[in-house]
């Protein structure tokens, strides 16, 4: 007896097998953690008292449609639901008592007298990003590009959140974040914020070099997308290859709450 299999059936079977295989192996995305992607999975255990949330640059110039970078970061922020996901982490901190640290980015007038700059430093200085008149007062801060996104203020200005000194380029090398974390007994960091391949990735690298264990919340960050470059995609690869764990906001919030119920 001869069995004839139609081309349509054969294609359907092949597609089903391919889908099943894809489910067994998946690269990390903004919203989904990796599955059997060929890399080790060190994991990240949330330990109350030792773990903190760190958010880089939750400021208007990145996250508001009126911010000076929205034209290049808006697509990534919108697709990742970055604004909402950062707020979900803030809420989880408030509900559980997990320590929250903010590492902001400010430029004062004297910073504009630097004699040399890298590519995006030059851009940030030229568009007045994160500008403040000086370090000693808040004149002109309210509602400026350097100010917090309005909906985040209750979480940041609550008398509990630690706002570090500003980082000046991208990483925590130029501010007191590592000191503040160590003084609080923190050795493990859940990292989120802006911008993915700049300050967020630099904070990941810098903290790991300082001996902290770091996981990155992949949809609570975003990056610039231009005609020729996608900053978010570049950072996602490095997050996966360097951090102890990458995962989305929903899973991270569940893990935080579960850790505090033990």
TrEMBL record:
Top-level taxon of the source organism: Bacteria
Positions of the Isochorismatase-like domain = 51-229
What PANTHER family does this protein's entry cite? ISOCHORISMATASE-LIKE DOMAIN-CONTAINING PROTEIN, PEROXYUREIDOACRYLATE/UREIDOACRYLATE AMIDOHYDROLASE-RELATED
Name the chain's protein.
Isochorismatase family protein
Q: Which interval of the chain is the signal sequence?
A: 1-17
Q: Which UniProt keywords apply?
A: Hydrolase, Signal
Q: Name one Pfam family in it.
A: Isochorismatase
**Alphabetized SUPFAM superfamilies for the sequence:** Isochorismatase-like hydrolases (SSF52499)
> Its Gene Ontology molecular function terms?
hydrolase activity
Instruction: Write down the InterPro entries for this protein, in alphabetical order.
Output: Isochorismatase-like_dom, Isochorismatase-like_hydrls, Isochorismatase-like_sf
Provenance organism: Henriciella mobilis
Gene3D superfamilies found in the cross-reference section: Isochorismatase-like
């Amino acid at each position: 007896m001869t069995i004839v299999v139609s081309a349509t059936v054969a294609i359907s079977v092949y597609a089903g097998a391919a889908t099943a295989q894809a489910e067994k192996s998946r690269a990390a995305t903004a919203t989904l953690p990796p599955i059997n992607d060929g890399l080790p999975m060190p994991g990240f255990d949330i330990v109350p008292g030792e773990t903190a949330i760190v958010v880089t640059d939750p400021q208007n110039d990145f996250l508001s449609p009126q911010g000076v970078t929205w034209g290049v970061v808006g697509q990534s922020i919108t697709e990742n639901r970055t604004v909402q996901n950062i707020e979900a982490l803030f809420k989880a901190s408030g509900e559980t008592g997990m320590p929250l640290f903010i590492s902001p980015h400010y430029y004062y007038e004297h910073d504009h007298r630097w004699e040399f700059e890298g590519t995006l430093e030059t851009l940030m200085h030229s568009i007045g990003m994160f500008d403040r008149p000086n370090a000693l007062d808040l004149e002109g801060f309210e509602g400026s590009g350097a100010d917090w996104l309005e909906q985040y203020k209750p979480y940041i200005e609550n008398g509990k959140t630690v706002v570090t000194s500003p980082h000046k380029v991208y990483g925590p090398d130029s501010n007191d974040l590592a000191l503040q974390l160590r003084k609080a007994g923190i050795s493990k960091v859940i990292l989120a914020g802006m911008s993915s391949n700049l300050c967020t990735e630099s904070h990941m690298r810098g903290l790991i070099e300082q001996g902290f264990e770091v996981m990155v919340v992949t949809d609570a960050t975003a990056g610039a997308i231009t005609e020729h470059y996608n900053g978010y995609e570049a950072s996602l690869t490095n997050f996966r290859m360097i951090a102890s764990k990458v995962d989305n906001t929903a899973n991270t919030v569940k893990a935080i709450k579960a850790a505090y119920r033990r």
